[in-house]
Amino acid sequence: MEIRVGSDFLLFSKVPWDTKLFGLDVFSLESWTISTQVSAIDSKAWRTNVLSTVGGQPAILVGRVPAKEDALRVTLGAIGMSIVEWTLHPELDLDTYQPNMSTNLKMRIASEGDITWLLSEAQDAFEVSRFFRDPFVPKDLAAKRFKVWVETSLNEPSKDVFVFENIDHQPIGFFVVSVKGESANLELTAITSARRGQGWSGPVWEAYLVHAKSSGLKRVSTNISAENSAVLGIYPKLGFRFGSSSVAMHGHFPLP
């Protein structure tokens, strides 16, 4: 789906699994060209064109864009999208990484026997996130989205779901990780509800990073909400550096 004003455009593609979950079309921003200066952006033209393109059918437009691109953010605002999350992007160079602590945690790939507790935990582990912060998305639907995300990841060849256990084989947390080349991306990271606030985050993250480095990976990255205070302090302690930030923007149509 393309929305264009003059030579500037926004290109969105449909997100099949979100479309199925929400029961209406969900489109994600894929590419754009915004050459117009902020002061010259024609908000009325953009608003008219998006309404014409979307039509009268209910739809959600979403996008994660560099925070420094002011003209793009203003353009998205003009078509009815607003910021729901400010996102940070920690990245770690594993060549220079040295573990800070020893741990007795065990890490393994999730099995069929883990599905029930994984899906249960996924529904309340990510409440500091963009869909929970979107006032037009019911909280139960936002929770179900993460449940579906984890369930889909369990059957996705390009992703691994890792389970972390203590010496008594009790679950401590889980990660959903995708690997491309020599880089790993932590898509979802969670400590189980029964173990939160007990100091497990450091050992869990360390256990994964030791595994990643021994597997020959060179980089680990992730995305976190700037308001996720529960994990925000973990990354600097582990040696992660924070690059440029981004913002997640959502728009609901017909416009509220």
Short description:
The chain is of the alpha+beta class and 256 residues long. Helix content is 31%, strand content 33%.
Q: Main traits of this protein?
A:
about 260 residues, Aminopeptidase, about 30% helix, alpha+beta, about 35% strand, globular, 2 domains
General description of the model:
- With 256 residues, the chain is of the alpha+beta class.
- It has two domains: 79 residues, no CATH class; 154 residues, 3-Layer(aba) Sandwich (Aminopeptidase).
- Helix content is 31%, strand content 33%.
- The chain is built from nine helices and 14 strands.
- The strands form two sheets. A seven-stranded mixed β-sheet has the order 1-2-3-4-14-5-12. A seven-stranded mixed β-sheet has the order 7-8-9-10-11-6-13.
- It is globular.
- The relative contact order is 0.20.
Enter the CATH topology name of the largest domain. Aminopeptidase
Q: How are helices and strands ordered from N to C? A: EEHEHEHEEEHHHEEEHEEHHEE
Tally of strands: 14
Query: Roughly how much helix do the residues carry, as a percent range?
Result: 25-40%
Strand order of the largest sheet: 1-2-3-4-14-5-12
